[in-house]
């Protein structure tokens, strides 16, 4: 009986903590990358939508919901550990490197290279267990993708 009550409260707590959803956690990091320079441009938000749809394969309704939660969490976040911990636990090494590339896509979407966005991604890399070499290659790939558009 106590196990059933404990399971009930555990599931209720998970519903109250959207950052435990790996899509929301990753989205929050993407929004934080966009916010790092103090400006959340529409092109950055569009880039995040494209990532949620393309890379994560989410439906339009799910994208809207995840993006709304990610934006709310990014605005109130005091650190990145609770998001990176979820992402690190749920994604493989290659997927985490892809996420770093996606962070670069968002940071560079407005056409400006901000030192604040750069510093944010340099801080996030080690928290995702992505080394400097892979982070730099991810940036190079993101820049190349943006040039071909």
TrEMBL record:
Residues 23-139 form the Co-chaperone DjlA N-terminal domain. Pfam families: TerB. InterPro entries: DjlA_N (IPR007791), TerB-like (IPR029024). SUPFAM superfamilies: TerB-like. It comes from the Bacteria. Coiled coil: none annotated. This is Co-chaperone DjlA N-terminal domain-containing protein. It comes from Maricaulis maris (strain MCS10).
